[in-house]
Amino acid sequence: MHGLSLFLQFALCIVLISVFTLSIQLACLAWIRSFRGAPELKRAFTDDAALPHVLVQLPVCNEGALAVRVAAAAAAMDWPRDRLTIQILDDGESSGHAAVVEAVQAVVPAHVRLQILRRGNRVGFKAGNLAFGLTHSDAPFVAVFDADFVPPADFLRRTIPALLADSGLAFVQARWGHANRGANWLTRVQGLLLDSHFAVEQEARYRAGVPMSFNGSAGVWNRTAIEQGGGWSGDTLTEDLDLSMRCMMQGWRAAMVPDLVVPGELPQTAAAWRAQQARWTKGHAQVARK
């Protein structure tokens, strides 16, 4: 029986690897064929007076200087001040909360609407943190940035118009850049792999009109899609993929803006990279089972 069990596990691995390889080949084929004509990303441009309220959520957890940096970058984004709310969602240790408040308030101008929220528990982790933040705002559009990202000033100007022009879009995803790509051989390899993910897989999915996943950061959501998809859920380790698939199954679509790059930080040690990959791999398996 033990031998049979090993054989079945081996066979299952071969099947999964075959399916993965086929999916990559199909993505590459779609990417090549897409040059014949990419879908036009429609954008609705209106006067500033007609622009909607946007909530920018910055989930942080013991991020130190990174939390301050992303807050400063978010506050510098070009959008009418009376229709922009920035949330620092602090899930870190309670002993460091006062320092986060002081440091963030020091870099965010007084005229920027800022909410620094702490829920007091970590139920649901990042998903629970994002859901908690939504209860403190009624903004119809929600941008999400992890602490290690630095959104450019024109980010909202280049993404929100696409959501305004197409009410069927659940979210608009930007491409990740890599601020520390040249730190060592590990970051250079990661940069290459993630560039392939965005330039081949994500863009090919968008151009081919098949479902694509939100990548957890550097994107803007239509809040109606979040609510109709069932909201953020912490029962998997990849809440971004989970919500994306629930929305796609209800008919929502997604769009990619490949020339909009938002730089972030890559894990610089093998231990940090292994932990990240283990979390992503387990989360994908959990979403597949769900």
Overview of this protein structure:
The chain is α/β, with parallel strands linked by helices and 290 residues long. Helix content is 47%, strand content 17%. It contains nine helices and seven strands; from the N terminus they run H-E-H-E-H-E-H-E-H-E-H-E-H-H-E-H. It has helices spanning 2-33, 65-75, 97-107, 125-134, 155-165, 185-208, 223-228, 239-248, 270-289, and strands spanning 54-60, 84-90, 113-117, 141-144, 169-178, 219-222, 253-264. Strands 3-2-1-4-6-5-7 form a seven-stranded mixed beta sheet, with helices on both faces. Helix 2 (65-75) links the parallel strand 1 and strand 2 (84-90). Helix 1 crosses helix 6 and helix 2 packs parallel to helix 3. The relative contact order is 0.14. The model has no long low-confidence stretch (mean pLDDT 90).
